[in-house]
Specification:
With about 200 residues, the protein is mainly alpha-helical. It is about 50% helix and about 5% strand. β3 and β4 form a beta hairpin.
């Protein structure tokens, strides 16, 4: 078991967030919160339970327990937790807030090398990669990094293949699809009135 310790920067009691390095050991398997806990910012606990079960089915022994299968299961599950960990940490590391010691610490704290690499790739040319079958897609990473105002210093050179007119046309088409979908959908108030207004439930 290896703890990720939260530094006491706000007067709140520190806590260790454990992740089992060997979720499968011998004839014992830890699933879900028994295998590790991550801050629930993205509500990933159910996903990690499902991945623990799915990877077990892949490695399920016919008889006995072979160390090679156990080691591979532990390696894969560790990566599942690390992918989620990095995505959650990004929300804090990329903050622009300077109003409290907590946010100043988050903004300047050391982060895993895997997250540093992702952030640098995006800063350089706006590149986003998805590793294997990790939970969060390229769109998710883009939304957080762009939304937290991590600005790429340049862009992919293939973008120069298209003329400004072609890019404008493409963006207009995307905007048109979004507008058409939004116009078709009811407003929030209309949906509530039609489906779940107060006093209408039996």
């Amino acid at each position: 078991e290896d703890g990720i310790r939260d530094r006491d920067v706000t007067g709140v009691q520190t806590c260790a967030l454990p992740i089992c390095r060997e979720a499968w050991k011998g004839n014992v398997l830890s699933i879900g919160l028994a295998a590790g806990f991550l801050e629930p910012l993205e509500s990933t606990s159910i996903h990690l339970v499902q991945m623990g079960i799915a990877h077990l089915l892949t490695m399920f022994p016919s008889a006995g327990f072979q160390e090679a299968e156990i080691a591979e299961y532990n390696r894969i599950l560790q990566r599942e937790y690390e992918w989620v960990r990095d995505f959650i940490i990004l929300h804090y590391k990329a903050t622009e807030r300077t109003d409290t010691p907590f946010w100043n610490y988050c903004r300047t704290m050391d982060v895993p090398e895997t997250l540093t690499q992702r952030m640098e790739l995006f800063r350089n040319h706006g590149r986003v990669f998805r590793e294997g079958n990790e939970l969060f897609t390229k769109v998710s990473w883009l939304q957080v990094m762009h939304g937290q105002r991590i600005a790429p210093q340049s862009y992919h050179p293939l973008a120069d293949v298209l003329s400004d007119a072609e890019i404008d046309k493409y963006l207009d088409e995307v905007s048109g699809v979004i507008d058409a979908c939004a116009d078709y959908m009811p407003t929030h108030a209309q949906f509530i009135a039609d489906h779940c207004a107060a006093g209408t439930q039996s």
